[in-house]
Amino acid sequence: MTIHVTVWNENVHETLGTPASIASDYPEGIHGAIAAGLRKYLDDDAVIRTATLQDPEHGLTHAVLDETDVLLWWGHKAHGEVSDEIVERVRQRVLSGMGLLVLHSGHFSKIFKQLMGTTCSLKWRNDGERELVWTVAPSHEIASGIPHPINIPHQEMYGEFFDVPAPDEVVFISSFEGGEVFRSGVTYQRGAGRIFYFSPGDQDYPVYHQDEIQRVLANGVRWAVPKVEAALPAVTNPARDWFLESTES
Amino acid sequence: MTIHVTVWNENVHETLGTPASIASDYPEGIHGAIAAGLRKYLDDDAVIRTATLQDPEHGLTHAVLDETDVLLWWGHKAHGEVSDEIVERVRQRVLSGMGLLVLHSGHFSKIFKQLMGTTCSLKWRNDGERELVWTVAPSHEIASGIPHPINIPHQEMYGEFFDVPAPDEVVFISSFEGGEVFRSGVTYQRGAGRIFYFSPGDQDYPVYHQDEIQRVLANGVRWAVPKVEAALPAVTNPARDWFLESTES
Amino acid sequence: MTIHVTVWNENVHETLGTPASIASDYPEGIHGAIAAGLRKYLDDDAVIRTATLQDPEHGLTHAVLDETDVLLWWGHKAHGEVSDEIVERVRQRVLSGMGLLVLHSGHFSKIFKQLMGTTCSLKWRNDGERELVWTVAPSHEIASGIPHPINIPHQEMYGEFFDVPAPDEVVFISSFEGGEVFRSGVTYQRGAGRIFYFSPGDQDYPVYHQDEIQRVLANGVRWAVPKVEAALPAVTNPARDWFLESTES
Amino acid sequence: MTIHVTVWNENVHETLGTPASIASDYPEGIHGAIAAGLRKYLDDDAVIRTATLQDPEHGLTHAVLDETDVLLWWGHKAHGEVSDEIVERVRQRVLSGMGLLVLHSGHFSKIFKQLMGTTCSLKWRNDGERELVWTVAPSHEIASGIPHPINIPHQEMYGEFFDVPAPDEVVFISSFEGGEVFRSGVTYQRGAGRIFYFSPGDQDYPVYHQDEIQRVLANGVRWAVPKVEAALPAVTNPARDWFLESTES
Lengths: 249, 249, 249, 249
What we know:
4 copies of one chain form a homotetramer. Chain A is α/β, with parallel strands linked by helices.
C-alpha cells in the first residue's frame, strides 16, 4: 500500500534566518530535512510532500488532506498564526482516521492542545545538553531497529512535568545531561486516528539529520497509517434490533 | 476535611416543563435531586450548593469556583448557551486540580468535549430499556458498596462506539435490553484534576433517586476531591541544577 | 514476510466425542477449524500448523517454537495435564517476542494465568444465548473490516467480573441475551511479546466457522507477529558511559 | 479507620553484616527503618508491625495476614529461600484486596514476579550515583507533598528496560547521574488488590531515612489500603436473571 505523507512546517525560523545556524543546518528547511529522512526509510513508493504556513490555506487544502495518510507537524514561533479553521479541519481528519505526528515544540500547537485538552506545558532549557532516548516499550513497532539508547549529542532540554493526558503508550523516555527526564515518545488514539508525539528535534540543532531519529519518524509514520476504513465518529439513533438488518463496519 | 461540592444543571427541561413528567420526577430540579443524593452519602459536614445556567455567570463565579472541590455537570438541550468564557474558566480550574463529574448527556457539553479533544459522539435510543451497570474495576473506590450489577428499570440507551479517549480507568460497563453496551463509568486525569464521567441519569427517568446511583455519585465526588496541593501546570525555564537550591512541590 | 502460525488445541472434547455435536461441528477438530479460518484470511504464503496435547512435548518442541511467530491456544478440560515445563517454555518465548492468542476457555490455561498473575475467573452460563461483540477501539488493526456488532446466534455466556489485569487495550466488549457484559477482546504486551485474548468460540457451538470470527483471529495474528528483533529481557550490569561505545538494539 | 501495616524484610544483609555499613545505616534493620518512617507520617493509630524471613512462616501467618491491610516487601539476597506456600498465600491475599508495596530489589521477589508475569529484569550499577525522582502524575495521592524532584545523593542505579507490564499508572520516573532512566514508582491493580512498586532504597545507602522517601511510602500505604469490601474473585455459574433476586457487592 502506498503511504501518502505530508510534512508541515511553519517555516518561520528558516524565513527569518534565526538562528543563523539554520541556513547551514537546514538548507531545505526543517520540513525538507524531515522529508528527506522519511524518503530514506519508507518504501520507495511512499509519496512525501511538504506544506508550510505561508502556502494558501497553509498548504492543507481539502484536496491535500484527502490524499494524506499521515501528517507531520512542526511549529514553534507562529502557533498563533495558524488559522482556527484549518486547525479544526485537521482535527476532524485526525478523528476520522488520518495519522498525526507532532514534533518537538509542536507540543504547543493549536492542533495538539485541542486534541489533548490540557495545557501541554513543560520545562525547557536551551543549553546544548546531551539527550539520551530510552525505549520502554520494546515490542512496539515504533521502536523497531532503534538503538537503546539513542544518543543525541546536543539538544534543547524538555523536562517533566509534561502536562498531557496519560499516554496510551509510552514508547520512549529521555534523560538530559542536567538530570531532567521527559516522556519523549508517546502515542494516543483519538477518534479513529493515531497520534505520535516525539520531542527530539529543534531549530538550533541538526537532530533531524541523525539516522536514528529519521528511523523513529519513519516507524512512527508506518504506525500512524490508518489500519481501518474509518470515518468521523457520528451520533446515531438506531431502532431496537437495527443490527439484525445490517451492521456498521 | 470538609468537601465543597457544586452541582451545576442547565435547568432547561425543568423550566420548560418538558417532559411533563419532570415536574413530578424532579420537583427540585435534576440538580436538586443530585444534591439531595449527595447529602445522604457524603459526610455531614460536606457543603453542597447548586448552580444553573440562568444564574449570573451561570452560577460559576470565581468566588464559587474558589470554594469548589468538585463540580458536577448536567446539561442536555442548552450546551450551546453556555458561555465560552465560563467554559474556559472551568477548564482551567479542572487542570489546576478541581474534580469534575460529567453526567449523562453532559458528554456533549463544551467542557467535556474540550477536555477530551474528541467528538464524544455515541448511539442513543429513548425506549425505556433496562440498563444493567457492571463493575469491572472492583478495587476502585468508586465501586465501593455498589451492587454488581446495578439494575436500572428504565433508562435511555447509550451505546458504543463512544468516541472518547481510552479511559485511564474503566469502572463500569452497561448493557441495555436491546443488546447495546456502553462504558458507563470512566475516569480521566487531566492536568492536576480528576474527571469521572457517569452516564446513568436522564430527564425522562427518576434515575437520580435510585439509591445505588446516589452512592456512585458520592463515591465519585470523594474520588475526585483534589488529593494534592495543585496549581495550573506551567511552562518554566529553569537553569541547570536549579533543583539543588529548591524543588517544586 | 511469511507468517508462521501454530494452532494449539488440547483436543480432548474431540477425542472423547463430548459434546456429541462436536463430530459434526468440528470434524477436523477445533484446531482444524481455526487453522482453516486463518488460511482464508492470512496471505497465501502463511505457514499454519497445528499441535495438540497428545503430541510428543504437546507438539511444542523447541524446533516448532523456533519457527512460530504466533501461537494460538485453545484448552478447556485438560489445563492440568499440560506439562509445567512446556508452559514455562512457551512463556519464555512469549516474553522473547512470540505472539500469543488465547481463546475462550483458555482464560484458565496455565500459560494465560501465569502471564496475567491473576485468577482469570469469570461468570459463565451455557444457555445458547446470543452474543453481540461491539468494537470500542475502532482504529485498532484487530477491528479492521469487522462489523459493529458481530452477531453470534448461540454462544456460551462469559460475564464480568473477569479477573485479569486492566488490559493495555480493550478492543471488543460483548453483551449476552441474559444481560451480562464481557471484555471479550483485549490486548497485553508482556516482555517483548504481544498477547490477544478473544473469548468467542466454544466446543458446543460452531462459532469458529463464522466468517467475522475468522477475520478477527486473522487480524489478531497479524497484530501479534513480532514487530521488532527481540530477545528475552535480561539483567545487565553495565559500567558508566557504556552507551558511548555501543548500544542495544 | 485504623490502618494495619506489616513491613516484611528478608533481614539477611543485617544478619550477615554485609555491607559493613548496614550496622550503622540500619541499626534496627531495613524493616525497622521503614517502620519508623511510616510511624512519622501515618496517623497515630496506625498499627505497624514487622516480619522477617527467619520468623516461623516468615512471620506471615494467616493470623498476621488477616490483620494486614498493606504489606511492604523488601528482599534481595534470599528470594529463593522464601517458601512457595507463603508466596501463594500472600498472592491470594493481594488478589483478595490486601495492598502490597514492593521495594527496590523486591522487583525480583517471587511474589512480584508471579503477580507481574514477566521477568522483571532491569539494568543496575552500584556506583553511588545521584538519583532524581520526578513526578509525572501530579494529581496522584502518592505524589502528595512530594518535592519535584526528590534528590537522593547516593543510590544504586536501576535502568530501563524494566521488564514489567505497562503500569496502570506511572507516578515517578528517575534519572541517574550516568544518564539512565527508570520508571521508579508505578502502580498496578490485580484482582481486588493494589500494588505499588517503588525502587529507591538499598542496603548500601541510608535512603529509607530520607524524609521524602518516608513520605512516599506513607502515601503509598494510604493509597494501597483496600477501598472496598473484597474477596478473591471467583468463578460462578449463575442462572439467567439471577440479578433480579439479588446482586453481588
